[in-house]
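Technical annex, item 7. During the second reporting period the consortium partners agreed on a shared format for inverse folding records so that results from different sites could be compared directly. Each record opens with the tokenized structure and is followed by the designed sequence. A conforming record, contributed by the partner at site C, is shown below for reference.
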């Protein structure tokens, strides 16, 4: 399963930090130090991955909130929750934005920022969703 970069917390919960370092001094010299850096990069990469399935799950959560907003008269009350999910998606897209494929999509999400539900939200959301699904299906 292909995975994309994702920002995660700096603690692994196993006594190691993100780099896999236990805080011990490297006594192996420069070759050992280089191997340690490579291992650190590998550990960090393993901690910072997001799968296409996770991106699709985020899309589904936002879709669900959109349906609820249409059914309820108080969509203004739900906008902060919806914006929070969009903001999370934006962060994940930024972390997988290789070759600026998501730059326009990220800009579309940012254009939705505000204290209230934008009037053109659904058309913008459908474009954002289409961009993400298209990217996932190509990879």
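Designed sequence (site C submission):
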């Amino acid at each position: 399963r292909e995975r994309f970069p994702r920002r995660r917390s700096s603690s692994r919960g196993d006594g190691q930090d993100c780099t896999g370092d236990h805080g011990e001094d490297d006594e192996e010299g420069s070759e050992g130090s280089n191997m340690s850096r490579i291992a650190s990069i590998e550990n960090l990469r393993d901690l910072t991955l997001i799968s296409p399935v996770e991106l699709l799950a985020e899309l589904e959560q936002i879709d669900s909130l959109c349906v609820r907003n249409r059914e309820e008269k108080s969509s203004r009350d739900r906008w902060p929750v919806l914006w929070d999910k969009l903001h999370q998606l934006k962060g994940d897209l930024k972390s997988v934005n290789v070759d600026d494929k998501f730059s326009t999509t990220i800009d579309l999400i940012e254009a939705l920022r505000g204290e209230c539900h934008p009037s053109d939200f659904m058309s913008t959301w459908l474009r954002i969703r289409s961009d993400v699904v298209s990217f996932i299906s190509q990879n």
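The helical segments are 29-47, 52-71, 75-95, 103-111, 121-138. Residues 7 and 48 are 5 Å apart (CA to CA). All partners now use this format for quarterly exchanges.
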